[in-house]
Amino acid sequence: MTKPIYLDYAATTPVDKEVLQAMLPYFCENFGNAMSIHSFGQEAMQAVDQARQNMADFFSCTPSEVIFTSGATESNNLAVKGVLKAYYAQASKNLLKPHIITSLFEHHCVLDSVRAVEKEGLAEVTYLRPDKNGLVRVTDLEKAIQSNTIFISIMYVNNEIGTVQPIGKIGKLVKKINTTRGAQVFPIVFHTDATQAINYFDCHVETLGVHLLSMSAHKIYGPKGVGALYIKKGTPIRKVQDGGDQEYKMRAGTHNVTGIVGLGKAIELVQKNQAKENKKIQLLRDHLIEKVLTEIPQVRLNGSKTHRSPNNTNFSFASVEGEGLLLSLDMEQISCSTGSACSSGALSASHVLLSIGLRPEEAHGSLRMTIGKFTTKAEINTTVKKLKIILTRLRKISGSVLDEYYAKK
Amino acid sequence: MQYSKKVLQHFTKPHNQGVMKNPSGVGMVGNPVCGDLMKIYISVKKDKQKGEYIKDIKFETLGCASAIATSSMVTDLAKGKTIEEAMEITRNDVADALDGLPPIKMHCSNLADEALHEAIKDYRKSLIKN
Question: Does the predicted interface ipTM exceed a cut of 0.90?
């Protein structure tokens, strides 16, 4: 039996063996609760501190600015809801309804958090539409800023189409506005969901100019169920989960010591190997894009080719539906992802692809292949070969129904 | 998403798939927003005993695995049936014949019966015209 081909690294990554080795002692031997003062606890706390230091080194911040969470979903929820909580905790009685800016193609955990506070009447929200290349325009964002804007959340790298957003430029803009606002007024807090960016992009928080940054360990060859939120010192934010005094009182709950150790190791490996891995992965990615675009008819690449994560490809194939495509690939032991509604259990096609102007059938016919550090050129060649056969079969089944549908309209 | 073996069989090797030249009736349902479009062609013949029946049937479908499987199954169910009998085929009959569909697929991609019924109506309309 041939080895399965995994091309869904944007969904999750395998745990690196080095990461696993680092975690193992903290399950059965050094199992202490990091909040206990005895030696078991101290040992655990030392491991948590080391992981926090590794995070701080990577982000160029101080360790006390790193809060461990259960992952990017929690970090994003804490960012949105925690800042809003801080806003309403101000002493003034005549608070304006605050304004939030985000984009239409954020991950659901950001969008749904923002929609939740909007629905509760706690904030008004502007949802920026990215351009057709999948980039948020800084000029659009600047125009959307109002005197009551207190929170901006724009993702660093889009998880479906891999496009890279101008975080540094937005950071500069926010800094300029906050300076003119002065210290007495609630500032604009700038948050970025950097979950898909950590492996490949500069994440120095000062360069980015962010107050908050979310990430997840399982996207960087670390374990699932752990992540972090960077909180710049002095940022107005309140905790949303009550309980113990863990994480500088920002996030109650017993430390996930093994997970945190794994995250610490994973981020250390990213820092060490980033430059080398990036190059290799980008070459493979370019090979995949070129092969698909030249060997397969009626296909488009979704999202900017240049402002793009080195590991991401996202194509739309005409007259094909993504779920059938995915299932057929899976039968060949090739794992990818699609923006088709049918694969997700949701009832509409990918909000990301629709937001950049794709027609629903183009979104339904999309295929995301994301590569990682264990992907080989042979795997990519096999994938394209199988893909061609599958597309021919599915396109024969669909015939010209789509054209006929539009001809009748 | 767990599909039955039968669904996967009909998805990978659909029956009666293709175009029909000079069909007696054609039915197309669905829309690109939902992602499923189905087209059914029927060839109706008359038999002294049975009356009008579906002698041949073909389908073309743009859609997910269950859209393709239900299209294939409805052609199996309808083939050889009188047009009255074929009008009685429901989406539940199609799903049952496939050993069930995942709940979410019952509505969005189980439209094959409608395409069949549209094709029969199209055939009946053509009779009136002629």
Answer: yes
Q: B36, A401: Cβ pair inside 8 Å? A: no
Nearest-angstrom CA–CA distance, A318 and A360: 11
* pLDDT band of B1, cuts 50, 70, 90: low
Among the partner-chain residues B3, B11, B104, the one whose CB lies closest to the CB of A345 is B104
Domain A5-12+274-408 annotated CATH 3.90.1150.10: yes
Q: What distance in Å separates the CA atoms of residue A46 and residue A298, rounded to the nearest whole number? A: 56
Euclidean distance between CA atoms A88 and A72, whole angstroms: 24
**Is the CB of residue A199 less than 8 Å from the CB of residue A311?**
yes
Answer whether A228's CB lies under 8 Å from A55's CB.
yes
When pLDDT is averaged across residues A193-218 and rounded to a whole number, the result is 98
Is the domain spanning A17-269 CATH 3.40.640.10? The answer is yes
Q: How far is B29 from chain A (nearest CA, A)?
A: 9
Annotated active-site residue in B34, B37, B65, B87: B34
Residues 6+ apart with CB under 8 A from A186: A87, A90, A98, A150, A236
Q: What is the pLDDT of residue B129?
A: 75
Domains in chain B: ranges and CATH = 5-129 (3.90.1010.10)
